[in-house]
Amino acid sequence: MAAAENAPHHRWNFACAAVNGVIFHIFFAVFNPATVVPAFVGALTANPVWVAVAGQLDAICWPLPQLFAASRVLHLRRKLPFYRATAVARGGVVAALAALPFVLAPGPGLLVGFLVAYGALHFAGGLAGPPFMDVVGKTISSRGRGVLFTVRRFGGGVLAVLTGILFVGPVLRALPFPTSYGILFAVAAAFSALALLAMSLSREPEGEAVAERHSFLQTVEAGFALLRSDANYRRFVTSRVFICLSRLGVPFYIGLAMWKLGLGAPAAGPFLAALMAGTVASNLLWGYLSSRRGNRLLVRGGALLTILPPLLYFLSARAEWGGVFLFYGLFFLVGFGWSGAEFGNINYVIDIAPGDLRPVYVGFNNTVSGLATLAAIGGGFILKYSSYDVLYGLAVALAVLSLWFTRRLLEPRDAGVTPSLVVGGARTS
């Protein structure tokens, strides 16, 4: 890879991507799939399956369309126009999402409307994934990306903690349901628009591309060919599948905490702050390790830390002391491990991808992860027909499997070799 720091408009693009990430964390705080969203859906229905769907929708709908998006941009030397088109679509959907609590009364209509709009929002965001990654990958080096994502996650995480403490909790306490959530969603929509604008202002140089346009099916075939030809990528994707499956219990932590501790909906604010504090606290560590040691260590560390929250559930379920502090610790660890896993995932896949095939590497990995997360909705059925112990015992086992498949991952900075791949009949490397 060429020295990305010397690419045209490097500093401007770094600033755009950093501002985009920092501001977008306010949106993510309000629409957090481990706290606010499950609390909102839980106020509309007692069925744990719907809570599971809501808590996993972002992780399902964001990755699933990425292979399709990759097929649309694989032949383009500039991908940013595609990103801008998705930004317009996302702006419209998030505005509609914010309006729902004001125009629909609590009940099945609001539940279905929210789930459809929330899923559509993340689906549109998923379409933006490959072009976003390509712009970042072609303009910022592997070490520079460690700094970039540290800035995005640390700065955004601080804002998210403040959002949980100073905004989410007070609004939920002061206003009736569902108006309180409507206010939260409207403010989040405004910040998401600013974040999308910031990234859309990037200045993209021409990059590598495959020679011909490829259909969606050809791109799918290319992804499977990559799995067959690249054992390291195969191990990485397998680990991602298990780590996504292991999160099947995350949407139920907030309901469990409120039930065990006798807390109401405003508790979503402090627990959100604890989760984002874990993200903030971890980001300086992950950024340092990414820059100094490489991203393989982040992938392994994120998988290891994903084991801890369900283990802490078993401790909290049997402890007669400090219940609220154990739950604060649980949410802190969810944020800490989640941050490492996602930080490592984003940077590792960019590291191992050749420039012309980066959309395939990124899109196929994320689409497979989305399908795995779709299966994680089964956590709702497990809880409906079994128990929390079974749910979180399975979560521990799946997280251990994820860690197992990371043990032989290569560090891309040391390997120095990228496999070739047949795409649409033409071999590229």
Number-wise, the strands total: 2
Order of secondary-structure elements: HHHHHHHHHHHHHHHHHHHHEE
Report the oligomer: single chain
The residue fraction in helices comes out at over 70%
Mean pLDDT: 80
Q: Would you identify the CATH H-level superfamily?
A: MFS general substrate transporter like domains
Strand composition percent: under 5%
* Uncertain spans: 1-6, 415-429
Shape: globular
| N-to-C CA distance | 12 Å
Strand order of the largest sheet: 1-2
CATH class: Mainly Alpha
Fold-level CATH name: Growth Hormone, Chain: A
What's the architecture, going by CATH?
Up-down Bundle
Supply the number of structural domains.
1
The computed structural class is mainly alpha
Describe the fold and architecture.
The structure is a single chain. With 429 residues, this protein is mainly α. It is built from 20 helices and 2 strands. The protein has a two-stranded antiparallel ribbon with strand order 1-2. Strand 1 (421-423) and strand 2 form a beta hairpin. Helix 14 (296-306) runs antiparallel to helix 19. The longest helix has 33 residues, at 142-174.
